[in-house]
Amino acid sequence: MTHPHTQTYWLEHAWLGSFVEPGVAVEVVDGRITAVRTGLGSPPPGTEILRGLTLPGLANAHSHAFHRALRGTVQVGSGTFWTWREVMYATADRLTPDTYHALARAVYAEMALAGITAVGEFHYVHHAPGGAPYADPNAMGEALIDAAAEAGIRITLLDTAYLSSGFGQPPDTHQLRFSDGSADAWAERCSVLKDRDHLRIGAAIHSVRAVPARQLATVARWAEERRAPLHVHLSEQTAENDACRAAHGCTPTRLLADHGVLGPRTTGVHNTHLTDEDIALLGDSTTGTCMCPTTERDLADGIGPAAALQKAGSPLSLGSDSHAVIDLLEEARAMELDERLRTRTRGHWTAAALLRAASADGHAALGWDDAGTIETGALADLTTIALDSVRTAGPLPRLGAETAVFAASAADVRHTIVGGRHVVRDGAHTLVPDVPQALAQAVEALRA
Known about the structure:
The chain has helices at residues 81-93, 97-113, 139-151, 183-190, 213-226, 238-248, 252-258, 276-284, 293-298, 306-312, 328-343, 351-358, 360-365, 400-406, 435-447; strands at 6-15, 20-29, 32-37, 48-56, 58-63, 116-123, 154-161, 199-205, 230-234, 266-270, 288-291, 316-318, 382-385, 413-418, 421-425, 428-429. By secondary structure, it is α/β, with parallel strands linked by helices.
């Protein structure tokens, strides 16, 4: 006979979705919140104390784990998205299941240190260089799944269809290891993957240039049958829009709409260069938008119409994408500040709305509808931010949401709890002893 594992946390200050409440006790049984009690001025006996401001765990809705190896390297000199892509391909060429596991484990540990409790991994490096499948055709995906488990966070593996180098063009040399040959073969391979306690399996269309139009519906149908999340890079570059119009006489958004890709479980990543009709198509279908501001500005992609998209009905989430930095608070702040620069007006989102994009709405985009809130029945995923650092000291605790979004950084995360388990305690990872060293070794292995 087994006994349920119980734990009670006392949160010095807790953000409960729209306001900050002092003195909150959260009772956890077998990884889920079973009670939330407020108005407790001091910790009850036997509780574990979390000093600072506790938020729901943060969701990183868009990640390419191996891009972390590019940090610093691709900031040398100038160039474009397309020259950056050549450097990225060279790194992808050197990945093996073992080196990818080591890198992803360190990257996901870095995410945990930043308060991230779930990641959406947009995964397209499927096969060996040259395109030959591994003995286990999902060896690369399994490496990511295991890496997340060892780093202590949840993962939605967005297994990605990537079949062509452009409209009507076969994969180039670098892209052969991304391709399954057809959408049917992609579906057959990833159908073997099944959800686990820390894992959700989703689907992704790399982009309209990488999946032929006649095969888009196959991917969409696979996701619909499983009620799984479906993500797609959308209109990140004007060159993609121009090529799509040349090939199909319409925008990428219209192409996706015409082939049944849009919908409430679909998320467009970036959604940067859109027409008014595109925005209406996304909003009317309640297709989500994942903004990745630190990557979009690093690659000089542009500023997407996030405010207009949300107003039209597209839920917003946030991702660190290429991992120029891993800091969901910075992504939230950047979405607001980028919009201020674009419009020269302030206050497009409240701090609470930005935190919801980084937590509840991000989790929903990844298929974790039971995470991202501090309430009874939710998964016990919590992130605690210090309110006494050089960045956060001074403001009143009731302004904790504003302090978190507009002043704090990932360096201020003190505790990360996933399913009631302390993954980060007092700023140190409890499962990966030396995360900086793990990152350095994993990146060096690829460089060599």
